[in-house]
Design brief:
About 55% of the residues lie in helices and about 15% in strands. It is α/β, with parallel strands linked by helices. An eight-stranded parallel barrel has the order 1-2-3-4-5-6-7-8, surrounded by seven helices. Strand 3 (about 125-130), helix 6 (about 135-145) and strand 4 (about 155-160) form a beta-alpha-beta unit.
Length: about 325
C-alpha cells in the first residue's frame, strides 16, 4: 500500500509543480546534485575525490512536445561537454521518453544518435534507462539500432519483469545496470512481492557477473551487497568486471565504504529541478529508502510545507472517490 501511495504522489502534477518551485527549500539538494551544470560538476568532483564515479541524469521524462525533447537533448549534450571539459569521472544516463519516444520513434532515435555520437567522440558511455513496461521493447529497439554503429551504449535490466532473464541473456554483451524496478506494473508482466523480486535480482546479477560484459549492481540493500561480495570471492571475479551503484544522497557512508574496499563504485547523479517524481519513485521502489534520507530532508520547517502538499493530494484523492 505504501508503494502505491508513493507512485500516486509521483504522478501528481500539483505536487510536482510545487516541488519545482520550492525544491531547495524542501531539502531537494540532499537527493539532487544540482539544478544546473555548474553545481552538478562541483558535486561530481566531490564524489571523484572519494574514489567514486558518477552517472548523470538530466531529470525529466514522459515528454510530449518536440520543443521540450530538443531542449532535453541540448541539456544532455551540454553536460557531456562539461564532463569532458572539466575532466571529471562521469558518464550519462538518459530516458528515451524525455527525448521524444512518446512523440515519434524516429525523432527519438535521431536525438539519441546525436547524443551517443558526441559521447563516442569523448570515449564516454551512454546508458539508456528503462522506464515502465510499455516503453521497454521500444527502448531495446533503440539500443539495438544504436549499437550497430556505436559501442558506447548500454541499458538497464529491471528484475521485477518476468522477461528480465531473457532480455539479460539477449544483451549479455552490453554493459548493463541491474535494478529491482521502480514503476507500478501489473501482475501479468511483473513480480509483485519483495521476496520474488529480490530472488530474481540476485539470479540476474550472478548470471551477468559470470557471463556478461560489465555489470552495474544498483542497490542500497546491504544484504544483497553482502551476498554479491561473497559470490565475487567464491568465483574469483575480477573487480574490473563490475561496479556497485547507489543513488546520490542515499547511504553515503556505505558508498564510501565500498569504494574504500577497492570496488568500482558509481553514484547515480540526478540534476535539474524536475526532481519530485524521481524521488517518489525511489521511495516506491523500496519504501525503506525513506529511512535513508528522512533525517536529511525533513526538518521542522519544511515538514509543514511537505505535509500541506501531501495533505492536498490525499484530500484530492478522497474527493474524487466521493464523486
Amino acid at each position: 500500500m505504501l508503494k502505491d501511495v508513493f507512485i500516486g504522489l509521483s504522478q501528481n502534477r500539483l505536487l510536482t509543480a510545487a516541488a519545482k518551485k520550492y525544491g531547495l527549500k524542501l531539502g531537494a539538494q540532499t537527493v539532487v546534485a544540482g539544478t544546473n551544470i555548474e553545481e552538478t560538476i562541483k558535486s561530481i568532483r566531490s564524489l571523484n575525490a572519494q574514489g567514486i564515479s558518477a552517472t548523470v541524469d538530466n531529470l525529466g521524462e514522459f515528454v510530449f512536445e518536440k520543443e521540450a525533447a530538443l531542449e532535453a537533448k541540448e541539456n544532455i549534450m551540454d553536460m557531456i561537454e562539461a564532463i569532458h571539459k572539466n575532466k571529471v569521472d562521469a558518464h550519462i544516463s538518459l530516458k528515451p521518453t524525455q527525448l521524444g519516444l512518446d512523440i515519434d520513434y524516429d525523432f527519438c532515435l535521431e536525438n539519441l544518435k546525436d547524443i551517443v555520437a558526441l559521447a563516442h567522440n569523448y570515449h564516454m558511455h551512454i546508458n539508456i534507462d528503462m522506464e515502465d513496461f510499455g516503453h521497454v521493447q521500444p527502448s531495446y529497439d533503440l539500443l539495438n539500432t544504436l549499437s550497430k554503429d556505436y559501442d558506447n551504449v548500454g541499458t538497464v535490466i529491471q528484475a521485477y519483469f518476468f522477461r528480465a532473464m531473457d532480455d539479460l541473456q539477449e544483451h549479455k554483451d552490453f554493459r548493463l545496470r541491474i535494478v529491482k524496478g521502480a514503476y507500478k506494473e501489473p501482475a501479468d508482466v511483473a513480480y509483485q512481492t519483495r521476496e520474488e523480486i529480490d530472488e530474481n535480482f540476485i539470479k540476474l546479477i550472478e548470471y551477468h557477473l559470470l557471463n556478461g560484459k560489465f555489470t552495474s549492481i544498483a542497490t542500497h540493500d546491504h544484504h544483497i551487497i553482502n551476498h554479491v561480495e561473497a559470490f565475487i570471492k567464491e568465483h574469483d571475479i575480477s573487480y574490473d568486471k563490475f561496479e556497485f551503484q547507489m543513488l546520490y544522497g542515499f547511504r553515503k557512508e556505505l558508498q564510501r565504504e565500498l569504494a574504500n574496499k577497492g570496488y568500482n563504485f558509481c553514484t547515480y547523479v540526478p540534476f535539474g529541478d524536475d526532481w519530485y517524481a524521481y524521488f517518489m519513485r525511489r521511495l516506491a521502489e523500496r519504501p525503506q529508502n525513506l529511512n535513508l534520507v528522512v533525517k536529511q530532508v525533513f526538518t521542522k520547517k519544511n515538514n509543514i510545507a511537505i505535509g500541506a502538499l501531501a495533505g492536498a493530494f490525499i484530500l484530492g484523492r478522497a474527493t474524487k472517490k466521493r464523486k
